[in-house]
UniProtKB/TrEMBL annotation:
The lineage of its organism: Bacteria, Pseudomonadati, Pseudomonadota, Betaproteobacteria, Burkholderiales. The gene is nusB. This is Transcription antitermination protein NusB. One of its GO terms (molecular function) is RNA binding. PANTHER family: ANTITERMINATION NUSB DOMAIN-CONTAINING PROTEIN (PTHR11078:SF3), N UTILIZATION SUBSTANCE PROTEIN B-RELATED (PTHR11078). Keywords: RNA-binding, Transcription, Transcription antitermination, Transcription regulation.
Length: 163
């Protein structure tokens, strides 16, 4: 602790390395979607396996369920939204980037309590952690465009606030 009573990381302005429950739920949903995209396994079986992972109890279980089952249930609709903003068929994307884009698009479409910039940033962080070298840049660009379609008023308000 510093003399101010703050931990050294907080005193230096850095975030705690601890992950939020929502971030953990996104990471677990990403693992499940990856498995579903690659193997076509049953969603219930994937969920059961993920719930056995050590640390699952630290995730936001409701958000995990919404992301995993929502993305699988709405895969065709999410891919249709993404197809307007990607440079190739979604089936030709790497499974990691595809799953990250599905999660980001699902959150933009359904999780209105999550600000659009947060949904995009969280997807970018997933891509940085689990995707290819520059996959996060691609994810950022695609979701920036999708946000204009899915949250036009929020995007416009943010643009006007910057002026």
């Amino acid at each position: 602790m510093t003399s101010s009573g703050k931990s050294p990381a907080k005193a230096a302005g850095r975030r705690s390395p601890q992950k939020s429950a929502r971030r953990r739920s996104r990471e677990l949903a990403l693992q499940g979607l990856y498995q579903w995209l690659v193997s076509g396994s049953d969603a219930g079986e994937i969920e059961a396996n993920l719930r056995e992972i050590e640390g699952f109890d630290k995730a936001d279980s409701a958000h995990f369920d919404a992301l995993l089952h929502g993305c699988i249930r709405e895969a065709a609709d999410l891919d249709a939204i993404l197809s307007r903003h990607v440079d190739r068929k979604t089936t030709e994307l790497s499974p990691v980037e595809h799953a990250v884009l599905m999660i980001g698009t699902y959150e933009l479409k359904h999780c209105i309590d999550v600000p659009y910039k947060v949904a995009i940033n969280e997807a970018v962080e997933l891509a940085k952690s689990f995707g290819g070298t520059d996959g996060h840049k691609y994810v950022n660009g695609v979701l920036d465009k999708a946000a204009v379609d899915l949250r036009p008023a929020e995007v416009e308000a943010a643009r006007n606030a910057r002026r």
